[in-house]
Amino acid sequence: MVSISTEKIHRDFESARETYLSYGVDVDKVLVEFRNIPISLHCWQGDDVRGFENVGDVANQNLVTGNYPGAARNGDELRSDIDMAFGLSPCRHRVNLHSIYAEPRRPTPRNELVTEDFRKWIDWARMKGLGLDFNASFFTHPMMVDGFSLSSRRKDVRDYWVKAGIGAREISRDIGRELGNRCVNNIWIPDGMKDMPANRRLYREHLIDSLDRILESSHDRTYMVDVLEGKLFGIGLESFTVGSHEFYLAYASSRKGVGICMDTGHYHPTESVVDKISSVALLVEDILLHISRGIRWDSDHVLIQGDDLSNLMLELKRGRFFDQVAMGLDYFDASINRVAAWAIGLRAAGRALLRALLEPSDLLEKAESQGDYTGRLALMEEFANLPVQAVWDSLCLDTGVPVGIGMLDAIRLYEQEVLLNRR
Ligand code: RNT
Ligand code: ZN
Prior knowledge:
This protein has 423 residues and is of the alpha/beta class.
């Protein structure tokens, strides 16, 4: 495999530092900033959103395709895989959990889970210095009747999931308190219909009522915050999604202390979350991003570099949103090595973040404020090719992470020694 010598990495870094300095950017300061901005890794890429429950043959509301060998089968395997992925990324990490990843002593209904059922995750996170985020899993369960949960016509179904939602908030609060690190509790439900509904209003009334019940008690913001994730449509749910973005946006602005989660795959393909950030963040306090790569639809492809990701990070940087907007990844691909899928996504997010932090954004703002749109465009083009890669390689080297494609050797070895033995 191609390898770059340490001397060359140092040399290129020094030269990049000089280039950035000529634009007034202090690379060393940026690197400190970079290490303080966490990216929450979605644990569910490691096992195709299956979880550890063994619910039997029920419908799955998350479409995952592929059958690459080596999916994690239990908590220890999943944590080991996440450790492996983190060893390949120089980012600051958190982990995003779903309630289907509970490890209770004896089988426990999903809506009766308590904090102790996540003990292994919490202890592991503390040991590794990671923050945790949380979601009640409103999917793949016999109580998802016709694919409905919080907005079901059936009261017993709504009650079941309201209880799960209340429990998730308590678990999130406890996690945040124990780790001394605020936990973001996200609610996403798949509720919707393949064909045109006759009574949209009814389902949304039910959803309002269920959310009100879930969110009734207030928890200390130091430890947890709530966000709601909307969606445009899903496969098999082409005509109607109860929890649309507009619905949750209106809900969040009418209630105190509820935030919004925006998944980059959940809008019309020509809409961009980049423009939504300042539209929402100036009026709603808590925002979470699910960074994904939708192809044609919300396909949840592995995150890679490109304009979409780059522009997203640039917007967070230019608008100074990093303190307010939390970042998580969200995709699942079972057709390639799952640890590689995580590492590739984390490194893509990290590189785009670094690029954004290194951008001499002041110069763009200055040009714009002076009405110099020609200069603004010319500068943007110039900034697109500043030597981020040299800074990135040096960062990898300094944080003990494989430089460049060296990452792949580490993954192949792990696949041979660990993943392929899971049969
Ligand atoms: C689904 C949503 C949701 C899920 C996870 C598993 O469209 O994006 O965030 O991916 O909760
Ligand atoms: Zn999502």
